[in-house]
TrEMBL record:
Signal peptide: none annotated. Gene3D superfamilies: Winged helix-like DNA-binding domain superfamily/Winged helix DNA-binding domain. GO terms for biological process: response to stress. SMART domains: HTH_MARR. InterPro entries: HTH_MarR-typ, MarR/SlyA-like, WH-like_DNA-bd_sf, WH_DNA-bd_sf. The keyword DNA-binding applies. This is DNA-binding transcriptional regulator, MarR family.
């Protein structure tokens, strides 16, 4: 592949990713959550009883940053800290009823947004894109 083609493809991929991040931020606007906080809420709702260290690992952030994220979610009433039943020195994060509801609403909104975005492509193009992105993600 000529170098200029690779550069153009790289730029298109970056532009598409930026557009997707912008759509994701816009989708989250009704809940006034950042993508980072939304990912954390998803981790906690998917893994009830999540330790802060597990949250940090799942989000690829420092434990101190995970504490700040948990504080923000707790302040909004989306998660609560409870003692870890297996280690009295540790705490775990569990979603509140509101946190579970917000996570479900966000998941539905994101799914609808993704359907709208990918509706621009026919089925064959969507399948090709999925194959290509899997190949790139595996590398």
């Amino acid at each position: 592949m000529p170098e200029d083609d690779a550069e153009a493809l790289g730029e298109l991929l970056v532009r598409a990713a930026r557009g997707q991040r912008r759509r994701w931020r816009d989708t989250l606007a009704p809940w006034d959550l950042s993508p980072h906080h939304a990912r954390a809420l998803r981790v906690v709702t998917d893994r009830a009883g999540t330790r802060l260290s597990d949250l940090a690992e799942a989000l690829h952030i420092a434990p101190r940053s995970a504490t700040e994220v948990a504080d923000a979610l707790q302040a909004r009433g989306l998660v609560e800290r409870t003692p870890d039943p297996t280690d009295r020195r540790a705490v775990v994060l569990t979603p509140t009823a509101r946190g579970r509801r917000v996570q479900q609403e966000i998941a539905a909104a994101r799914a609808a947004d993704n359907r709208d975005l990918f509706a621009r492509l026919d089925a064959a193009d969507r399948a090709a894109l999925a194959r290509i992105l899997r190949t790139l993600a595996e590398g």
